[in-house]
Amino acid sequence: MYRIGFLGTGHIAAPMVRFLARTGHGITVSDRNAEIAAALAEGHGVAIAPNQEVIDRSDIVFLCLRPHLAQEVLSGLSFRAGQQIVSVMAGPSLAQLQTLCAPATDFTMTIPLGFLEQGGCPLPAYPDSDLLDRLFAPENPVFQVPDETALNMHFAICAMVPGLLDLMQTGAAWLAEQTGNPKQAEFYTTQLFSGFLAAMERAPGALSQKRDGLATEGTISLQMTDALEAGGVHRVLTDALSAIGARLNGVD
């Protein structure tokens, strides 16, 4: 078992803390979000401490800070050689982390989402996947990406999640207007997509195969995909992904 610390205790850190606490690790979390930290302490027996004490108590330190605050927070803290650092922040580069967390030299960068707690969350890892394998696999599949640019492209895809939820909310609101039952409309929309995706095969090409199997000639499904294409939705999506990727890679 490991001594693990979390700097930043919000909606990204909490599921990881709960997952790791169940497997018996000793965990200390920062008091930055007092309400979440208190709930974790009460429900999972984790310790709460100021940032520097979190580092001092831990052999593995997770950086779950808001990216724009990372430099301000980390520059005032002291790490030690031999500590393993895991960053889940979109933005700060490996080179920046190496400077801010020196003399620590063992770094891993990844992208956890909230459902990691239940398992099935894919975890891209750079530059090495070994630590994440030991902490989160096999419940969550871990895979290594070749470079930091590739990791940032996975961060960009993660930005699709709130985008898709936004579209689902629009659809649910439309259904509510037609039926007069907002609660049932949101339940149906949410259950429809979550159930379909949960049952879908994960093999390469499955996305296009499922789409084409539904959107056949004369169907309302084809009417929908044709309308989205004609409206430029795919172009808007790829443009947004490219802009996010460029931002993460520091390209103007």
UniProtKB/TrEMBL annotation:
Domain of life: Bacteria
SUPFAM superfamilies for the chain: NAD(P)-binding Rossmann-fold domains (SSF51735)
Pyrroline-5-carboxylate reductase catalytic N-terminal domain segment(s): 3-91
Pfam families reported in the protein's UniProt record: F420_oxidored
UniProt xrefs under InterPro entries: NAD(P)-bd_dom_sf (IPR036291), P5C_Rdtase_cat_N (IPR028939)
Family assignment from sequence similarity: Belongs to the pyrroline-5-carboxylate reductase family.
PANTHER family: PYRROLINE-5-CARBOXYLATE REDUCTASE (PTHR11645), PYRROLINE-5-CARBOXYLATE REDUCTASE CATALYTIC N-TERMINAL DOMAIN-CONTAINING PROTEIN (PTHR11645:SF13)
Protein name: NAD(P)-binding domain-containing protein
